[in-house]
């Protein structure tokens, strides 16, 4: 079973890129972030024509998350991150698919830091960590994937000294990610490639992609019930080089059958 995450940076504007990648890569399940589309503007018909069922949590102009599944039923279990009824951002959706609980998230960027946006990021992280603890306690096979907007270590960022004050790399952010991991989650890409430089995002500026001046901010976290099924993981880096593409590349894992 192949599961992927992809921050599309505008699902309608990047639809040709998304459909091409779905056709070439053929993942069974896909988590999308940054739809940048209200609920009624999600391209449901085009996704269906590509062979995928879908659930989505849209928001005008910003945010937005979706889960696609090829020939599999999607049983939605959570829409919006629990813990703050005042939070209207469309950043989390969760479903049960083929015996797996899959959470798709778009964690706040948090810049400029310090400031209100960084405070929101850390509070969102706290709520997410609490929700993740509940999922672990269920003893179900769980995958939490998406754009975490965190570079966990210096290995995950090109020239880390330039990022020390950025919200994605500040000590508070990295500590929050470590606290989450320490609950008992496995970082799938790091399990497969513990010492390799791997990036999932390259800025549009300064020829970042051409220089491979990237960041690893899109992650797969696996519960113990999934970790032992991990067979492969990777980044479809070439997609970042396509015309009119997102600044992220798709990230994927493959699981062995139970």
TrEMBL record:
EC number assigned by the record: 3.1.11.2
Keywords tagged on the record: Hydrolase, Magnesium, Metal-binding
Endonuclease/exonuclease/phosphatase domain segment(s): 4-248
Enzyme category, top tier: hydrolase
Family: Belongs to the DNA repair enzymes AP/ExoA family.
PANTHER family for this protein: EXODEOXYRIBONUCLEASE III (PTHR43250:SF1)
Name this protein carries in UniProt: Exodeoxyribonuclease III
Organism of origin: Mucilaginibacter roseus
Gene (UniProt): xth
